[in-house]
């Protein structure tokens, strides 16, 4: 069945279901656009010519010329977009894969700047940071000190939940060299509990999911430096916190002690899961900086 006919059918079929968030939708649109670039023999920032597109286990099918330009896909509903992506063997990336897509054999982490402030680390309690620091081969002590200062500032009313590195009183702003290795780990290598089954080698920051001129490829060595001034640190409750804290099992005594070092009972909730995100930055129609890989706790 021709691609144009497929699109016509999808446009007529149900499509009432909107089950994806913007990031999930953009992920599929970017992957479809990459397949289109391969078909056209075009490239993108950091990649002169796209010759292969896929994931760690498959190469995506070729673009059907009757699909036209990827911009035609933006009007599809979520269910229609998912069906079309599946026709090309494209699926949403698994939770344990840092590389959302492989371009010319290299793993790229796709991050859309159109979403809520992009996360580097999602709600991760201290044991997860200990795990990451161990793999990044850095000490957690500087971060412990910064967290203690954070709580002193928050309890005295000098800051709210969020503190950005652009704030002169941020206790994290002076720790760029100490935190860069562990933040890079979270972006490209693993989470607070496991190493990724598909590590990434590059961040691909995406403005418009169907317009490659708004994309930027950024390597691990420079990504932290490019976003450092836009990082926002928060200590949060619920997500990332042990469900049974502080009533943890005796076997979890070491983990409980670790969690307690960062946790305070504040406004009727235990808060000790560190979240790190990037404030988006735009200059005209060009997106600058980088969005890291989301790191699950």
Model description:
32% of the residues lie in helices and 18% in strands. The chain has helices at 3-12, 22-40, 78-87, 126-136, 141-155, 176-188, 220-227, 253-262, and strands spanning 53-54, 101-103, 106-112, 119-124, 162-164, 202-206, 215-218, 231-237, 264-266, 269-278, 282-283, 286-287. It has a 5-stranded mixed sheet with strand order 1-2-3-6-7. A hairpin with a 2-residue loop joins strand 2 and strand 3. Helix 1 packs antiparallel against helix 3. The longest helix has 19 residues, at 22-40. Mean pLDDT is 87; it is low at 9-17 and 283-297.
Strand content: 15-25%
Query: What is the number of beta strands?
Result: 12
Could you say how many structural domains there are in total? Answer: 2
Strand order of the largest sheet: 1-2-3-6-7
What is the structure about, briefly put?
The protein is an alpha+beta fold and 297 residues long. Helices cover 32% and strands 18% of the residues.
Describe this protein with a few key phrases.
297 residues, alpha+beta, 2 domains, five-stranded mixed sheet, five-stranded antiparallel sheet, 12 strands, 32% helix, 18% strand
